[in-house]
Amino acid sequence: MALIEQIQAMVEQHPMILFMKGTPQLPMCGYSSQAVQALQAAGAGQLKTINVLADPELRANLPRFSNWPTFPQLFVHGELIGGSEIIIELLEAGELQRIVAEAGVV
């Protein structure tokens, strides 16, 4: 299976998935750390994360798939939500909590 098809399968398989640098326990960039903190503050407990630093091919091809150049990247129900700035804005607006609940990852 081609890598783009694998990415498509991942975002469709998980109701909410965060492609980030590092892991939630050990984020490797400030933006990934902020995204994880915001998602946890919104109640995301069952969040699927993928460390793009562990897979250079994924790191190179995900921006082509999503049309989003930076990491982290949050997908919900197969659709790109955005990066850390958008995740934080959604949290501050009270929307992220609803998105997390609807994705069933609490």
Kindly describe this structure:
This protein is of the alpha+beta class. It has a single domain (3-103), classed as 3-Layer(aba) Sandwich (Glutaredoxin). It contains five helices and four strands. The protein has helices at residues 3-13, 30-41, 56-66, 84-92, 95-103, and strands at 16-20, 48-51, 73-76, 79-82. It has a four-stranded mixed beta sheet with strand order 2-1-3-4. Helix 1 (3-13) packs across helix 3 (56-66). The longest helix is centred in the middle third of the chain and has 12 residues, at 30-41. It is globular and about 35 Å long. It starts with a helix and ends with a helix. 35% of the residues are buried. The mean pLDDT is 96.
Q: Roughly how much helix do the residues carry, as a percent range?
A: 40-55%
CATH architecture: 3-Layer(aba) Sandwich
Structural class: alpha+beta
Strand order of the largest sheet: 2-1-3-4
> What name goes with the CATH superfamily?
Glutaredoxin
Average pLDDT over all residues: 96
What is the tally of helical segments? 5
Strand content: 15-25%
Reported for the largest beta sheet, the result is: 4 strands, mixed
Summarize the structure.
The chain has helices at residues 3-13, 30-41, 56-66, 84-92, 95-103, and strands at 16-20, 48-51, 73-76, 79-82. By secondary structure, the chain is an alpha+beta fold.
Keywords:
single chain; 106 residues; alpha+beta; Glutaredoxin; four-stranded mixed β-sheet; globular
